[in-house]
Amino acid sequence: MRIILDTDMNGDCDDVGALAVLNKLADAGKAEILACVANGHDEDRATAAAISAVNTYYGRPNIPIGTYHGSAYPPVKSCYTARLRDEFPHAAASDDALPPALAVYRRALAAAPDTSVVVVSIGVLVNLRELLESKADAFSPLAGADLVRRKVRQLVVMGGQFPQSDPVRGEYNLSFGNGGPDAQYAVEHWPTPILFTGFEIGLEIVTGKRLAAAPSANPVRRAYELFTSFNGRPSWDLTAVLAAVEDPALYWRVSPEGYCQVSPIGTNQWHPTPNRAHSHLIAKVPSAEIADALDDLLALPPTG
User: Which domains does the chain have, with CATH numbers?
Assistant: First the structure.
């Protein structure tokens, strides 16, 4: 399974947990991490360094990283990104010195076999919109939507709430920073199937407490210590990675295909018709069992 992870690793620590789970699934031979792209900034411009610190810990310092270079989203004050940058080995420069996320996306997709990539979005959808709107370049003669159609098998989005979100506030990843238009555009124009892991899916799956017993050299442990004091955190982003790499039916029911309508302010509503090849996860296995499976992955040391 070839994966591109699109993350806002600067606010919540569950992005760190999601990347850790992805690395351990890669250790098990279930995933290949093609690239990681950031879809937002933290005030210290250390998001990429935090991503790199996690990948470096798991023995993958050379995974390409791209960053969001725009200004449409406000920078986030992070309690952990600069600490991971300063306390752990990493191979990334400041966010502003790295290639734009769009370039990393297009390079990775162009080099991949057709219909072989799963994109996992665990933040705002601005990079997805920029990818869809992109033009032919040195990496590929295809415009963005055509490149996605050829190379991507599925998009997994941690976003929304099902059957519908709060009609005023929406769900964070679809509505943060007036990002509703980006989310609406990306969902409306994405040309392959989309699987949504809604807010309600990760909310009851609390993970990270066991990281208190992990080695101090583990940056994932440090992120959870700084963000939660090892009290655990809902596993919104971790469940998206798990559903992208493993058969989601092992843990959840998958809805029949329909249509997730996203409004300009980032609220969402599920419709059984028309069939837009959208689906969403529905609870099946008890939350505690899924939490145990994820905590087992978080607790595993790097391979080799």
Answer: 2-299 (3.90.245.10)
